Model the fold of this input.
Amino acid sequence: MSLGYLAGRFGALLVVVWLAVSINFVLPRLTPGDPIEERFAQMAQSSGGQGDVTAMIQEYRAKFGLDQPLWKQYLNYWGSLFRLDLGYSLQHFPERVSDRIVSALPWTIGLLATSMLIGFVLGTLLGSFMAWPSSPRALTFFVPVFMLLSAIPYYLLGIVLVFFLAIVWKILPPAGGYSFSGVLGFDLATITDLLSHATLPALAIVLGGIGSWALGMRGMMISVLGEDYITMASAKGLRQRTIFLRYGLRTCMLPQFTHLALALGHIVSGAILVEVIFSYPGIGLKLIEAIRAKDYTVIQGIVLMLTVSLSVAMFAIDLVYPLIDPRIAYRRK
Done:
């Protein structure tokens, strides 16, 4: 892999991040209403106060830099990003944006990333076995099931699972990340409580994703069965297991890994409603709360994290491609 190619890809990564940060800065400010005024209106309504809070609103606008021209806010925003400072939450001042993200990130990674990886592994293996000629014919009965699962969004599966497993049969808790009466600690009771609350949303994500992974892998595996190298490997007398792993599965994994990188980058946006339905304390729930409250700084911080993670994931998968398939070489001819 040449240094010129690496420099070009890294430059493209910087351009994508710059565009994303710029759009991320502008979009929240296009929504009508003032977040500071709405916050003080909510406080006055809850406390029953009727006093004049105009001076306080102006002071807070100045504190957050919202009284400055838009171009100056943009430059200040970039300056804060270079210092790795995402600012304070407008809705939960004086809590910092980074603290809100850090408190929710382990929940999102633990639930969504793990569930998506489980769905990816199971779907990829089942899809490849369904297409391979020497596999049991009974696997073909999974095709209509996976077609049905791939057509149902995560949140609809979540609603169905809540109805049957939490309301009708009362096997699992319907919402939350842990019991309200419990005390979190590193013990068996806490782990059991966390797993029981994560089972329903994780099951919704796994079932919603396994169909797409399986059908995609099945289609790619069928397309490579007629390739000359598969015929040559069979003519050479190689074992079916070797042909399946080295010539079939390995070839089809390239587009699957690309899809996985995109899915991991979009992990919150793809399953954000799952966290909302189950009131799971992850990044998705924090983002919905920030959008409802017009909390610019939290919205910008979360969307920035998602954008950078997607860009870095695509950059990393581009570097991993030659390791997966040695026929790919990024060098000038």
Remarks:
- The mean pLDDT is 80.
- The CA atoms of residues 143 and 305 lie 36 Å apart.
- The longest helix spans residues 188-225.
- Residues 97-324 form a domain with the MetI-like fold fold (CATH 1.10.3720.10).
